[in-house]
Amino acid sequence: MKPPVTRKALLKVTVDPEKTVATVDTQEGTIAFQIEGQPVQHLKAGDAFYEPANVLVARFDNDGDTPAKFVVHYLLSKDKDETVRILDK
Questions:
Q1: Can you tell me the distance from the alpha carbon of 17 to that of 7, in angstroms, rounded to the nearest whole number?
Q2: Quick one: average pLDDT of 62-81?
């Protein structure tokens, strides 16, 4: 007999109700994350984070000696494939 499937809730965010999501794009990378004006989030295995649209990201890098991986889901409209937009300060 196989063990039952279990799930651990990591993050629940209300998405812009005006946005129609057609695809979710999942990618891996390494990260230390900071939205401008907020403290740095040092993410470790199992942590979740949310990056709101149209905010300045002050830091998005690996701040350790060991590579770290994260999974990201981009909520994309049917005709959009932009996952990152560089904003002017």
A1: 26
A2: 74
Separation CA 85–CA 53 (nearest Å):
9
pLDDT surpassing 80 at residue 49: yes
- Measured in degrees and rounded to the nearest 5, phi and psi for residue 3 equal -65, 155
Q: Tell whether 58 is covered by a domain.
A: yes
Domain that holds residue 27: 23-76
What is the domain count for the chain?
A: 1
The answer to whether position 83 is within a domain reads no
| 2-45 confidence digits (pLDDT tens) | 666 576 777 777 777 787 877 777 767 667 889 999 999 988 77
Count CB-CB contacts under 10 A for residue 26. Answer: 9
